[in-house]
Amino acid sequence: MSTFIAGRDLNRRFYLEVVLPLLNTSFPQLNYAAALLGPGSETLGLDSEMSMDHDWGLHFFLFLQEQDAHLGNTIANILSQQLPSTFLDIPVSFPVEPIEPRTRIMKRPTDGPINHRIIPITVRNFVRIQLGFDLAQPLEAADWLTFPSHALGEIVAGEVYHDATGELSALRSQLSWYPRDIWLYLLAAGWQRIGQEEHLMPRAGYMNDELGSALIGSRLVRDVMRLGFLMEKRYAPYAKWFGTAFTRLHCAQSLGPILWRAQQASSWKEREEALCRAYEQLAHMHNALGLTQKLPETVSPFFERPFQVIHGELFAQALLKQISDPAVQRIARQRLIGNIDQWSDNTDIEGLERAKLRSLYS
């Protein structure tokens, strides 16, 4: 196996040293963008030597303007005839069929055209595939709430090697973060989740159900982490990279050790103490944003019971009061379910028709 090179760097060199000269020769007047976006650890800059075993290698998108879309097959065919079989001793070709479902592995071709993965596509078609959304339609609140966070992040992350049209850069700017009122709604939904379960963790432990308490505690840890992403305006990736990406947040330096103590706690009282410190840190972060009036940053008893909570629902209601967009206000008046990431972690949910997902907000 070749020496590992980070996918972003590898594909930048491949574009500049190989693909760009070929395009300049065959299509000197073509205006396009070239970028490494979409699914894949290399898009997030999280690839490693292990990533080389599947769906990794020399690949990126060539974004064509709509009037040039008809050139896609021609460009792909010319590249298949002119690309080298290897670059930096890495095979350029991928198998026609995946070795396993959704899995492709680089291979050295014996002869014939190169089955490359330099994919000509329009920005509009890319968004159709990545988000299930047609850019010809207005972008509404229900759309933002049914776009998976990781799918948005895979557009904003990655690297653009060239953009002569500005279309791709405009898209990335448009999707760089949620509109303000959508953001407020998501923050409120995150705090609501904490308010719904923060008292359940110690209650289960109080009944000597340490396994159940630990399970609820883990859910709360994840909710705290999700709020960290939201407060720092960073799209959270899917489960495999969730914890790794969290370590890159500013809040991870203080929150990370506290949350790890909550995960490792052997008793509900230890777990409660750690989670309470996390809630207080989160409340401090909330107040620093200046989105609402200042709210309490210390835990207090859950009514008359011997459990300490931050009362997440108070933060949720304070945030909802700041929403001014009528469409988001209407959604917020319903049950506070948040977005697709907050109400389900079933990956197959993303494959449903977007009309069905949008209906949850109608």
Strand and helix layout:
Layout: H1 7-26, E1 32-36, E2 59-64, H2 72-82, E3 86-87, E4 90-91, E5 117-122, H3 123-131, H4 141-146, H5 149-156, E6 159-163, H6 167-174, H7 180-197, H8 200-206, H9 210-231, H10 239-246, H11 252-264, H12 268-289, E7 300-302, E8 305-309, H13 312-320, H14 326-332, H15 340-343, H16 354-358
Parallel strand pairs: 2-5
Antiparallel strand pairs: 1-2, 1-6, 3-4, 7-8
Helix pairs in contact: 1-2, 7-9, 7-13, 8-9, 8-12, 9-11, 9-12, 11-12
Question: Describe it for me?
Answer:
Residues 144-242 form the DUF4037 domain. Pfam families: DUF4037. This is DUF4037 domain-containing protein. The protein has 362 residues and is an alpha+beta fold. It folds into 2 domains: 7-174; 180-361. 49% of the residues lie in helices and 9% in strands. It has helices at 7-26, 72-82, 123-131, 141-146, 149-156, 167-174, 180-197, 200-206, 210-231, 239-246, 252-264, 268-289, 312-320, 326-332, 340-343, 354-358; strands at 32-36, 59-64, 86-87, 90-91, 117-122, 159-163, 300-302, 305-309. The protein has a 4-stranded mixed beta sheet, sandwiched between helices. Strands 3-4 form a two-stranded antiparallel sheet. Strands 7-8 form a two-stranded antiparallel sheet. Helix 8 (200-206) packs antiparallel against helix 9, helix 9 runs antiparallel to helix 11 (252-264) and helix 11 (252-264) runs antiparallel to helix 12. The protein is elongated, with a radius of gyration of 24 Å. The chain starts with 6 loop residues before the first helix and ends with a helix.
